[in-house]
Design goal:
The protein has 7 helices and 12 strands. By secondary structure, the chain is an alpha/beta fold. Helix 5 crosses helix 7.
């Protein structure tokens, strides 16, 4: 079975349900008889319900297939940020172990100047980027960011802000983290471990292993859900001296 979101502007049929400006068609094709068919249907229903409430996503011709906990997506979105958000949302649905996201960014008629100006406006709304301005260069749908920030988390957030702009298909992040590599690796490792293993703040990664080389932290272990895996990365990026995280944490069941 697949779920198809048609392009905006197409005529409605009697079986069409319009939510958030996106027409959702449920296409029930013949199913091969297998024991897990019912659970696959339930996971599809959960994903459909979750996506129907996402008013910030501008998806077209989104097709979804689920088999044995693997959710496969195709279609188009307005920005690379929407593609990434889609993976996070679907990955957080109960019953989804793996997300295969083949959604692409549809071509935009926006000029490079228009894209660059919107990205700069969004960055300038954050006080931390007012103090440390980020340069933005746009070529087609590719955006290059450069500058210096205090934390690896700021570097990631700048990338996510730029990625959220409609028409952006790729981010080249050349932002540097001030002081990266100057903090002793063992000090960084202890701070990352203290945050990620504290049950009051996080503590959900099983078999957590942390290694540090310069300003790069590598995480491994297993997480209950995809959002937990991503949150572990964000928490590690918030530690002073961490420029980037290599996230090798796997999700249970994937």
């Amino acid at each position: 079975m697949s779920i198809l979101w048609p392009r905006k502007g197409l005529g409605r049929s009697a079986g069409t349900v319009v939510m958030c400006g996106i027409a959702i068609f449920l296409l029930f094709g013949p199913q091969a008889a297998r024991p897990d068919a019912a659970s696959d249907d339930l996971v599809k229903q959960r994903i459909t319900t979750r996506l129907a409430g996402q008013v910030t996503l501008h998806l077209e011709l989104l097709q979804l297939d689920v088999a044995d906990g693997v959710a496969q997506l195709s279609g188009t979105a307005a920005s690379i940020g929407e593609v990434q958000t889609l993976s996070r949302i679907v990955g957080g649905v109960v019953g989804v172990n793996t997300v295969i996201n083949n959604v692409t960014v549809r071509p935009s008629a926006r000029s490079a100047d228009d894209l660059g100006q919107e990205i700069r406006r969004k960055l300038d709304r954050r006080p931390r980027f007012q103090a440390s301005p980020i340069s933005v260069e746009v070529m087609g749908g590719d955006v290059t960011l450069a500058g210096k920030v205090d934390r690896g988390l700021d570097r990631l957030d700048a990338e996510m802000i730029a990625a959220s702009v409609a028409g952006v298909a790729r981010i080249i992040n050349r932002i540097e983290v001030i002081g990266s590599g100057s903090t002793p690796p063992e000090e960084i490792r202890k701070r990352v471990l203290s945050i990620l293993t504290n049950p009051l703040t996080f503590g959900v990664i099983r078999g957590l292993q942390v290694t540090v080389a310069g300003g790069t932290v590598t995480l491994s272990g297993t997480a209950p859900r995809e959002p937990d895996r991503e949150e572990a990365e964000r928490l590690a990026l918030g530690v002073p001296g961490v420029a980037q995280v290599v996230n090798q944490i796997t999700v249970l069941g994937s």
